[in-house]
Amino acid sequence: MAQPNAAGDLDAVALETALLETWGQENAFQSSIDSRRSGAPFIFLEGPPTANGKPGIHHVVARAYKDLVCRWKTMEGFLVERKGGWDTHGLPVEIEVQKRLDLMSNEQIESFGMKEFNQACRESVWTYEESWREMTERMGYWIDLDNPYVTLDNNYVESCWWALKQMFSKDLLYRGHKVLPYCPQTGTSYSSHEVAQGYKEVEEPSVYVKFKLVDQDASILAWTTTPWTLPGNVGLAVGPEVTYVRVKVTADAENWQGAGGASIGEELILAKDLMKEVLRHHAEVLEEFPGSELVGKAYEPLFPDAVPRGDSQTAWTILEADWVTTTDGTGVVHTAVMYGEDDYNLGMAAGLPAHHTVEMNGSFCKGVHPQLDGRYVKECDGTIIELLSSPGGSNGKGPQSGLLYREKLYSHDYPHCWRTDHPLLYYAMDSWFVRMTAVKERLIEFNSQTEWAPDWVGEGRFGEWIRNVKDWAISRERYWGTPIPVWRSEDGQMKCVGSIAELQQEVALAVAAGFENPDCPDDVDLHRPIVDEFTFVSDDGKPMKREPFVMDCWFDSGCASFAQWHYPFENKDTFESSYPIDYICEGVDQTRGWFYTLLAVSTTVFDSISYKRCLSLGLILDAEGKKMSKSKGNIVDPWDHFNREGADATRWYMVTAGAPWSPLKFDPNGVRETYAKMFLTLWNVYKFHADYAALDGFDPEKSANDVSSRPALDRWILSRMSSVASEYHNDFVSWNFHKACRDLEDFVVNDLSNWYVRRSRRRLWDEAENEDKASCQHTLHEILVVICRLMAPISPFMVDVIHRNLTGQPVHQAAWPLGVPGSLEGATSDEWDIEAAAATATIPPVDKKLEETMSLVRELAEAGRRIRVDAGRRQRLPCAQGWIVAGPDVSIFHDILAEELNVEEIAIEQDLNRFQKVELAPNFRTLAPKARAEVNAVSNEIKNAQNPDEMLAAIKAGGMQILGVDIDENDVEIRRAERDGFAAETVTIGQGEDAFQVSLVLDMQDTPLLLSKGLARDITRRIQAKRKEMDFEIEATIDLQVWLQNAPEMFESDQTWIATETRSAAAVFHSEGQAPANADSFTVDGISVQFTVE
RNA sequence: GCGCGGGUAGCUUAGUCGGUUGGAGCACCCGGCUGAUAACCGGGAGGUCGCAGGUUCAAGUCCUGCCUCGCGCACCA
Questions:
Q1: Which of A109, A642, A674, A814 could bridge to A653 as Cys pair (CB 3.0-4.6 Å)?
Q2: Residue A228 has what DSSP assignment?
Q3: pLDDT of A255-294, one tens digit each?
Q4: Which residues touch A30 (CB under 8 Å, ≥6 apart)?
Q5: To which H or E segment does residue A771 belong?
C-alpha cells in the first residue's frame, strides 16, 4: 500500500501531459473497460464528426459531456464501450474540394472526372484527422479512435444499402419531385443550410396580373414577385374563408406609374382586405363573397402554349388552399406547380399538370412563347411585362387594357448561389423520399419513450418537428456519398439491392441476358462512378440504370447504430445486445439532424426506439455572445487553454459555467478563474496532506481510527463530504451537472480549504505521533479520495494523480462513492436493486446535527468579526469573554469559536434581556389569509408596537386581537436587537418556521493581561512575516531582539509564547534603549515596536 | 412571420409554492487576518430585476402586450 509522496508545486500542463504518457503505456482506457467486463452494459453511441474541419472549443464541450457520462457510468460498474466514428460523406466535403480545385459546377466536376473528384473527396475527409485525434487525446476524451466506424467504408455503405432496402421492401421509399433552391449556373441544388448563407436583399419587379375568367366579364387579380413563373401558371389559389369582392372601375387613375392599368367599366376580383393596397383606380364594390364561391371557376391561360393540359380537369381553374392569407398580394395566389413548394404540393393534391416551362440551365423551354423560348428566365421580366400589357394581353383574350394591372418594385430577402452570386430558382427536381408521414404515429410514440435533457427539447422543438413530419427527401444530385442502390428502367420498373451479394447477382443476371457489365468483385467500391457503370435487367428484359443520386449524408449517420458493426452481415450479436442505445449527446443543432435521422431510421427499419436518453447541448458562443463560426473567425482554439490552464480546468469550467443545455458564453477568463480557484485550491489541500503524510510516513491502511472516535471537526467535514456527495450524485442523475460541480467546488474551497484545513494546520505541525494528528490525516485522506472519484468523470487528470499517490490505484479503476449498481447481479442499464446498490456506497457517515452546529459556529465567527469592525477593535487583541445568547448548544466547538473570535472564554447567557430587546414582525404567510385587505394595517400595528414584550406576552396568552383580527403566536416573528451599549450581533439561522436567532456579545474591556497577549500576537505575526521574507526553513531557529516603546507590560508567559511560536533560540525584550538602525519597526494602537531577527 | 429559450450590479451568474431587506463570484475601494495558495475574512460602492400594463394585501417570480438577443422552422404568392 502506498505511502503518499510529497506533492510539490502544481504545473497542471506538465502534470497532464505526463499522465497522458502513463495512460498510454498502461492502456488505461481499455483497462478501465476491461475491469468492468462483468458489469451490465451501458450503451453509448458517438455521433460522428467530420474531420475535414479543424476542431474548435465547441467540439471540446460536446466531447466533455459525452466523456463524463461514460466515465461516470463506468465507475458505477457498467460496461461502457466507446467506438469512435467519422462522418465522411456529404456536401461540405464536396464544397471544400470544389473550392480547392476550382470546380464550380457539376459540368466542371464531370469533365474533371467523377472518379478523380471522389478520390479527392476521400482524401480531403482526413485533412484534420490528426488535429481531431490530438485534441481528443489531450482533452482526455476516452473513445476508441483506433477502430472507428467510417461512413465511407464499404462495410458501412453496405449496411446503409441494407437499411434502404428494408424501406424499399416496406414501400416506404418512393420517387417523386421536390422543389429545391437550384442554381442553373452550377447545376446544383442546395440544402437549406447552404441557402441560409446566401440570402441577400434584392429589389425586383413584382406584378399584379389579371386572369380573365372564362364565361364572365371579370378578371381575378393575382400577384407574383417572380414574373418568370407566369408561363408555368396552371392554377390560382384562394382562401375558402377569405372574403373577396368584385369591383368595377369607375374612373381613371391619377399619377399612374409603370406599365399596366384598367379601363373604366372593367371588373376585377380580389380580397376585400387588400383593395386599398392594390387598387389604384376609384372602384365600386359590386358584390362580396367567400373564396369558396370562386372555387372551380375556369380562367384563360396566360400563355396557352406553354403547358399542355394533359388529362387534368383542374388546370386553369380556381382552387382552395387554407394557407392563403391577406398579408401580401391580392389574396389570390398564382400557382406554377414546378417552381414553388406550396405550389407543387397544391398542384399534386389538385391534379394540376406537372410540366416544366424552364430547362435545367435556367432558360425557357421551347414552345413557351416565341419571344421567350431559350432565354434565361431572369432576363425576361421586361418581355413578360410587355407581353401582358399589350392590348388583349399575352393570350389575346384579355381586355383591351391588357392583362397586367400593375407593376411594383418589391424588396425582399432572396436566396443566392454562394459561389456565383446568381439568384437561385425554386425548381422541382426528381428526388427520392422516405415516407416518414406513414410512420408518424410510431415516431411520436417512440419519442415519448425517450428521456430528453432538457425535457422541453423533446416535447417542444423535437416533438413539434415530428408532429409536422414530412417525407424525407433522401436523394442528392451529388457525387460524394452513399449511392442510392436503386436501378430503374426507362418505363419505371425498379430494383433495389441491399448488399454486395445482391448486386453481384443482379449483374450476373444482366450479363446472362446479354448486357455488358464491368467486373463486380467482392470488394467492389460502392461509390460513384463505379456503381453507375452497372446495368441491370428488368423482369421483362429491359436495361435498368442506377438512379444517379447519392443519399443525404444524414442518412449515413442515422444508420450508425448498426452500420458501425456492419450489421446484419457481421456482428449480429454485438448489435442486438447493444440496441437501443442508452445515451447520446450532441449539440441542439442536431435536433433536426442526427437526433432525427437516428429515430427515423430505427423507426422505418426496426420499428423501434433508437436511444433512451438524449442530452441536447446548448450552442457555444464567444465571450460576446456571438455564435462561433469559421466565417466570423471567433473560434476559440482549445489548445490556448490546454497549454495554459490544462484540460481539467477547461472541462470543469465548461460544466460549471451553466446548464448543459443553455448557450455557453465561452469566456477565457473563466477558465483561468476555475484553474485558480478550484484546481490550485484542491492541489494545495492535497499538498498540505501529502507533504506531512510523506514526512510522517503516514499509511492510510494502518491504525485507521474509527470515525466516531475522531474529533468533532473531523466528523463534521466527513459528514459534509457525504452530504455533498449525495447531492452531487442526485444532480448527476437529473442531468444537473452544473449544479453538482458548483456545489462540490464550493465544498472544496469553503468547507475543506478555508475552514477544515485552516483549522487543522496546527494539528499536523506536531512532530510526535498522536491520535489527533492521525485522525486528521485519515480524514484528509478519506475526503480527498472521495473528491477525486467524484471529480474524475468531469476532470480526469489531476484527480488521477492525486488518487494514485494516495491509494496506489488509478481513479478510473475506482468505484463511484455512491455505489456500483452496474456490477450487481441482474442489473441492467435502467434498473437495479436499489438497496443492494446503496450497500456498495463508500461515503462517510452523515451527522446533520453536527453540520448545522458547525454552520452556526461559522456564522458566529463571522458575526464576531463584524462586531470588531464596528467597535474598532483589532482582531489580534483578545476579548476576555464572549456570550452566546439563545440558540442550540454549540459547546462542542467552543474551543474553535474562541480561537476564531480571539476571546479567552465563551459563555452561554440565558437571559436575553441582559443584552437584547424584542421586536416583532408580522408573518404574512399566516396573517394575510386572515386579515385580507387589512393586512398592511395589522402589520403596522405589530411592527410599531410601543411595548413589544407586552404584546408578545399578550399574544402568547391567547385571545389577542388587532383591528378585529385574531393574532396567535404563528402570526408574528420574534426578532431581537441589541440593547444600546453592547457590542453584539444577531444572526438568523434557517428559513421560514424553523428559523431562529442567535446573538453574540463580546466583552470590550481591556486588561493588562489582554493587552500583553494582543501585543504578543502582533509581534509574532511580524516576525513570522520576516522569517518568510528572509526565506528561513520552517525548522530553522532564530535569535530575536525586541524593543518596545509606549507599550503595556509584556508578561513573561507571552514573551515565552513569542519565542516558541517564532522558533527563537534566544529572545530578548528591551523596554528601553535604542534599536539598531537595521531593525524592523511597526506601530500598533500607538505602541511602537522594533525588532531584529538573525 | 411562427415556435422555443434568454434579458437580474461594469462582467459572469443564483433566485424553490408569489411573502415585504434580490444572493454569490470577478473587478474596484476601505479595513482585518495569514507559516494560507493565483489565498482568506469583514465592510463599502455598484440593481428601473428589458419596457409598459394587469392580477394580488404582496410580483424578479403569475397574466397580457411590446422591445431585444440567440436558436430552430417558414421565407411564401
A1: A674
A2: G
A3: 787 888 888 999 999 988 888 878 888 889 999 998 889 9
A4: none
A5: helix A771-791
C-alpha cell at A107: 459540368
Whether A587 CB is under 7 Å from strand B: no
Pairing of strands A144-150, A283-290: unpaired
Burial class (CB in 10 A: 0-12, 13-18, 19+), A491: exposed
Determine contact, residues A819/A702, Cβ cutoff 8 Å: no
Beta strand spans in A547-610 (E): 550-551, 584-587
Task: Give the separation between CA A379 and CA A206, rounded to whole angstroms.
Answer: 14
Is the confidence at residue A336, as pLDDT, over 70? yes
pLDDT in tens, A91-113: 888 888 888 898 877 888 999 99
* CA gap A490, A680 in Å, rounded: 73
Neighbours of A8 (CB within 10 A): 11
Is strand B less than 7 A from the beta carbon of A151? no
All residues at 6 or more sequence positions from A287 whose CB lies less than 8 Å from its CB, including other chains? A245, A246
pLDDT in tens, A238-258: 888 888 999 999 988 877 878
Cβ distance A247 to A287 under 8 Å?
A: no
* Distance from CA(A227) to C1'(B75), angstroms, rounded: 18
For residue A278, the number of C-alpha atoms closer than 13 Å in the C-beta half-sphere is: 32
Which contacts qualify for A306-310: CB closer than 8 Å, 24 or more apart? A306/A231, A306/A232, A306/A357, A306/A365, A306/A367, A306/A368, A306/A369, A307/A231, A307/A232, A307/A234, A307/A353, A307/A355, A307/A357, A308/A353, A308/A355, A309/A353, A310/A353, A310/A355
**How many angstroms is C1' of B3 away from CA of A856?**
49
Report the C-alpha gap between A991 and A996 in whole angstroms. 8
Q: Strand B nucleotides below 7 A of a protein CB?
A: 3-5, 11-14, 19-20, 25-26, 31-43, 57-58, 69-77
| Phi/psi of residue A1041, nearest 5 degrees | -130, 140
Interface ipTM > 0.90: no
Query: Residue A632 CB closer than 7 angstroms to strand B?
Result: no
The C-alpha cell at A243 is 372574403
Alpha-carbon span A944 to A921, nearest angstrom = 9
A993 has a pLDDT exceeding 60: no
pLDDT score of A141 more than 50: yes
Residues 597-616 of A with CB under 7 A from strand B: none
Q: Considering only residues 18-47 of protein chain A, which place a Cβ less than 7 A from any atom of strand B? A: none
Closest CA to A1070 of A1093, A1040, A1042: A1042
pLDDT of residue A197: 62
Which nt is closest to the CA of A412, judged by C1'?
B75
d(CA A752, CA A209): 79
- Integer Cα distance of A225 and A219 in angstroms: 19
Q: Can you tell me the distance from the alpha carbon of A329 to that of A224, in angstroms, rounded to the nearest whole number?
A: 8
The CA–C1' separation of A570 and B52, in angstroms, is 66
pLDDT, tens only, A366-419 = 989 999 998 988 888 889 999 999 998 888 888 888 899 988 877 677 788 766
Q: At what angle do helices A1052-1061 and A1008-1029 cross, to 10 degrees?
A: 20
CA distance A63 to A60: 5
> What is the DSSP secondary structure assignment for residue A479, as one 8-state letter?
S
Does nucleic acid strand B have an atom less than 7 angstroms from the CB of A817?
no
- Residue A1023 vs residues A379, A928, A1039: alpha-carbon distances, Å: 91, 62, 11
Do A600 and A558 meet the contact criterion of CB atoms below 8 Å apart? yes
Strand B within 7 A of A220 CB: no
Which sequence positions of A are flagged as catalytic?
Answer: 48, 87, 554, 590, 594, 627, 630
Strands (E), A508-648: 536-537, 543-546, 550-551, 584-587, 613-617, 620-621
Q: Residue A551's beta-bridge partner residues?
A: A475
